Every structure is written in structure tokens, then in C-alpha cells.
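From the methods appendix. Each design record in this collection lists the discretized structure first, followed by the designed amino acid sequence. Records were kept in a plain field format so they could be parsed without special tools. The example shown here is representative of the layout used throughout.

RECORD:
C-ALPHA CELLS (207 positions):
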């Protein structure tokens, strides 16, 4: 499933469903789904998605003028029933820096029921323009499947530059869990330098 961010309607309202076996691609328009989010007074800028038990969760990133991050929970195959599909929106409270700290990539650990998110600061006042890159973090929410209607979950925020100065100047935008055991997650992070370049970082994160 690949979804447009919805931040520049109607141009980013497309969802692509790709069959990994047949390679068939089906395109859906998400206008109705995004209209329901707009009705909740959310400035739409979906930057991440993951599967969690019984649901799909999207990460909606805020900005300096709309300083709110949200997790949006909906059902699998939501694109085929956009008018009535379940829709739960939870504001998440991430400790802020000088510039707004926005969420982007998501991945879910089925082994430990934990949602991992990438968080970064960027000096931008809207949902579609790039700004000066700041710091990047990993945010961790444990026991997420117990209640998807939380308002202020306990969030652990890990400063990547403190871990290694190689992260300086990189806006980390995506995260994937490659493998895990009882002690660590092995993860891959993808960065954007806003100059056309991308870098992959591979690291082990202690649980």
C-alpha cells in the first residue's frame, strides 16, 4: 500500500495497492477518506503508515503553524469503504524542540507490541514546503494495541545525533524493523537531505 500525503489536494490523494506476487497495481482515489479527516480540523500531511493488530495506522505530521501530530487508525482495506470505515484519531504529545518536532515514518513490532516512529525538526510553516533541516529522533510507544484511543501515551524519544554525529544534517523520514530478538531491534532508517540525496542507516536499538 502506497498512499499520497493528502497535503496538496487533489494531486496527492492517490493510493496504490500493489500485489507482491502478481505485480498488479490498482489505483484508488482517497478524496472521501481525506474529506473525513478534514472535517476533524486536521491539516492532512500523512508521512508514514504501518499495520497494527486489526488496523492500519497513519502518521500525520504537523508544522510550525499547525503544531500537532496525530496517529490515524483505520481498518484494513479502508480504501474500498471510505464513507463508513472506522476512523480513530489520536493526538500524540512529543517533547518539542525550538522548531516543531514532526512525525514521519512508522513501523510496528509484532513481537513486542511497540510502535517505532521517526521524528524530525524542520523550519516550515505548512504541510508541503521544505524547510531548514534540524534534529532527528526515534520515538517509541510501547503496548500500543491495548488502546488506540490514547491521548498522551508514554513516549521515549531518542536523539540520533547523540548516538552518532553521522546523523547531523540528515532528516530521518522512514524506519523499518529488519529483525528483532528479546533484547534489540535491528532497524534501517532512511534520510532526506533536501538536496536530492538519500542515505540509509542501519543500527541496533536496545529495547
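DESIGN:
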Amino acid at each position: 500500500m502506497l498512499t499520497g500525503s493528502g497535503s496538496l489536494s487533489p494531486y496527492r490523494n492517490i493510493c496504490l495497492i500493489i500485489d507482491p506476487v502478481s505485480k498488479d497495481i490498482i489505483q484508488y482515489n482517497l478524496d472521501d477518506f481525506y474529506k473525513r479527516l478534514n472535517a476533524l480540523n486536521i491539516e492532512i500531511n500523512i508521512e508514514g503508515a504501518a499495520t497494527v493488530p486489526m488496523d492500519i495506522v497513519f502518521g500525520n505530521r504537523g508544522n510550525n503553524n499547525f503544531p500537532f501530530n496525530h496517529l490515524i487508525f483505520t481498518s484494513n482495506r479502508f480504501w474500498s469503504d471510505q464513507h463508513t470505515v472506522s476512523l480513530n484519531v489520536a493526538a500524540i504529545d512529543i517533547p518539542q524542540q525550538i522548531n516543531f518536532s514532526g512525525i514521519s515514518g512508522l513501523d510496528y513490532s509484532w513481537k513486542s507490541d511497540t510502535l517505532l516512529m521517526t521524528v524530525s525538526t524542520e523550519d516550515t510553516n505548512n504541510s508541503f514546503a521544505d524547510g531548514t533541516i534540524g534534529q532527528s529522533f526515534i520515538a517509541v510507544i510501547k503496548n500500543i494495541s491495548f488502546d488506540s484511543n490514547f491521548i498522551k501515551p508514554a513516549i521515549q524519544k531518542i536523539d540520533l545525533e547523540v548516538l552518532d554525529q553521522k546523523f547531523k544534517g540528515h532528516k530521518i523520514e522512514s524506519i523499518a524493523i529488519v529483525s528483532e530478538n528479546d533484547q534489540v531491534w535491528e532497524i534501517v532508517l532512511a534520510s532526506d537531505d533536501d538536496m536530492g540525496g538519500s542515505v540509509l542507516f542501519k543500527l541496533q536499538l536496545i529495547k
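APPENDIX NOTE: The chain has a mean pLDDT of 88.
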